């Protein structure tokens, strides 16, 4: 079992973020573009990293957990994870979180990592007191569209020929009520769902991963 952690992007990881951008998007932002995001007070840029491996042993009476370089009898993610597994970003504009980036290293798709990263962005937006979230997605990107709809996003418009590389339209998705009791309950339900999904693929979120985001982004619980 391998631990996962989220944290804001830092200067020393800019080259890794740029490399992951190239692999996920073919060059959505430049290195200077990511550096400008670091300097922007309205930008929340989170990264997903793999940490130490966890070994679980079970007895008749209890379950113990301890660190070990080699996991025993548990599902394992692919070996030698890269420095960054994923990167996500949103801009806080007035009362809205405009989600601009969501990318997972291609060889780690379909393991629940995209769900976890998207959850982290929405959790951060909630803690910042934002009221709604929006994003654009290619009409052909059915896997991403399915993910966003799973989190309650709905289509509210279309941007014609939004993507310059292909001339493809973008669907505009929107989610409101981020400060409502119902959304807070959804966050709690999603967290449990995501933990279970990750566990089946050999991943485990650090116990206090979202607390680290709160602290490093200067948010309040």
Detailed description of the structure:
With 221 residues, this protein is α+β, with helices and mostly antiparallel strands. The protein has a single domain (2-131, 176-216), classed as Gcn5-related N-acetyltransferase (GNAT) (Aminopeptidase). The chain is 33% helix and 33% strand. It contains 6 helices and 9 strands, in the order βααββββαβαββαβα. It has helices at residues 14-25, 31-39, 113-127, 142-150, 181-200, 209-216; strands at residues 2-8, 43-58, 63-67, 86-93, 96-104, 132-138, 154-163, 168-175, 203-205. Strands 1, 2, 3, 4, 5, 6, 7, 8 and 9 form a 9-stranded mixed beta sheet that branches. Helix 3 packs antiparallel against helix 5 (181-200). It starts with a strand and ends in a 5-residue tail after the last helix. Mean pLDDT is 84; it is low at 54-76.
Task: Describe this structure in a few short sentences.
By secondary structure, this protein is α+β, with helices and mostly antiparallel strands. It is built from 6 helices and 9 strands. The protein has one domain: Gcn5-related N-acetyltransferase (GNAT) (Aminopeptidase), CATH 3.40.630.
Which descriptors would you attach to this protein?
221 residues, single chain, nine-stranded mixed β-sheet, alpha+beta, Aminopeptidase
CATH superfamily: Gcn5-related N-acetyltransferase (GNAT)
Known CATH architecture: 3-Layer(aba) Sandwich
The number of domains: 1
Number of helices: 6
**Poorly predicted segments:** 54-76
Radius of gyration: 18 Å
Shape: globular
Task: Give the N-to-C terminal Cα separation.
Answer: 29 Å
For this structure, the CATH topology is Aminopeptidase
Bin the strand percentage. Answer: 25-35%
Helix content: 25-40%
Kindly state the mean pLDDT as a whole number? 84
CATH structural class: Alpha Beta
Tell me the major beta sheet. 9 strands, mixed
- Give me the strand/helix succession: EHHEEEEHEHEEHEH
How many E strands?
A: 9
Indicate the structural class. alpha+beta
């Amino acid at each position: 079992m391998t631990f996962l952690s989220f944290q804001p992007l830092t200067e020393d990881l800019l080259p890794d973020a740029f490399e992951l951008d190239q692999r996920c998007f073919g060059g959505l932002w430049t290195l200077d573009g990511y550096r400008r995001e670091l300097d922007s007070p309205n930008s929340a840029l989170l990264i997903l990293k793999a940490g130490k491996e966890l070994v679980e042993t079970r007895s008749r009476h209890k379950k113990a957990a301890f660190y070990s370089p080699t996991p025993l009898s548990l599902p394992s993610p692919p070996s030698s994870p890269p420095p960054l597994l994923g990167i996500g970003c949103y801009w806080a504009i007035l009362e809205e979180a405009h989600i601009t980036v969501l990318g997972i290293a291609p060889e780690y798709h379909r393991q629940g990592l995209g769900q976890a990263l998207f959850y982290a962005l929405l959790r951060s937006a909630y803690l910042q007191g934002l009221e709604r979230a929006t994003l654009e997605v290619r009409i052909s990107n059915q896997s991403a569209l399915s993910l966003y709809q799973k989190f309650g996003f709905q289509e509210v418009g279309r941007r014609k020929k939004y993507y310059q590389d292909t001339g493809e339209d973008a669907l505009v998705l929107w989610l409101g009520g981020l400060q409502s009791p119902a959304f807070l309950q959804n966050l709690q339900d999603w967290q449990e769902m995501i933990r279970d999904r990750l566990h089946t693929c050999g991943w485990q979120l650090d116990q206090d991963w979202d607390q680290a985001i709160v602290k490093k982004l200067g948010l309040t619980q």
